[in-house]
């Protein structure tokens, strides 16, 4: 089961390392199981051509399995049996797993975010739980490290929002999903009809859009920088992995800035050269 989870982790394209070879071998299996849980649940919310009710039912089936594990009852699937053993062996809390399911359920029903506080609230459940679980696995879960981790995870989530604006706009059964703050869109003169035109290729991004993306890049860069000390606090291979993750986020921001925010025609993705840059920054602690 750990092997299949590792394959799942490696089969989805990611701009950040997931259970990479740089991690100690004994951590790759547990991290792959955590990722497998999050990836499958996220796919329930996003992928395929199924109804809202079906998506929520699938997410609820994962909640039911967690409930069984917490009650020391044998789960229904082999995946959750392996996950439950891993949670027990590593003494992980269950709350982060429930938080992830709550975030993915929110994705099914909520398509607009009024302001930055709402976005941050979503990130506390969609991204931060992963970092908190990893710190627990590493034996490095303390108040300072948790805050650094939350900053990094929230920043990476928002970077994903920025690079996937066009992709997210096509989700939710044609209702479109926009993670960009509604009040900030209004302040920069951005309308949803404009985004639709950008997505369809009917218009080129204008100066307003470029300034809007630049504003978001500056803010998320500050957030990622606020968590960067964690890459130096964590030692050995887990510290190297963390610095790789941070450098990956920085590289994506660089690529968004380089195309003046036109993620509709130039969605950033990492190539061989980018990974060399990321590896070098992690190695030399830049």
Brief descriptors of the model:
286 residues; 15 helices; 71% helix
Reconstruct the topology from this structure.
Blueprint: H1 2-11, H2 25-46, H3 52-70, H4 78-90, H5 95-109, H6 116-126, H7 128-138, H8 143-163, H9 165-169, H10 182-187, H11 192-200, H12 207-227, H13 230-233, H14 236-258, H15 272-283
The total of helices stands at 15
Number of strands: 0
SSE order = HHHHHHHHHHHHHHH
Return residue spans where pLDDT drops below 50 for at least 5 consecutive residues: none
What's the pLDDT, averaged over the residues? 92
Question: What is the overall silhouette?
Answer: globular
What is the helix fraction of residues, given as a range?
over 70%
For the terminal residues, how far apart are their CA atoms? 37 Å
Description:
- The protein contains 15 helices and no strands.
- The chain has helices at 2-11, 25-46, 52-70, 78-90, 95-109, 116-126, 128-138, 143-163, 165-169, 182-187, 192-200, 207-227, 230-233, 236-258, 272-283.
- The chain is globular, with a radius of gyration of 19 Å.
- The two termini are 37 Å apart.
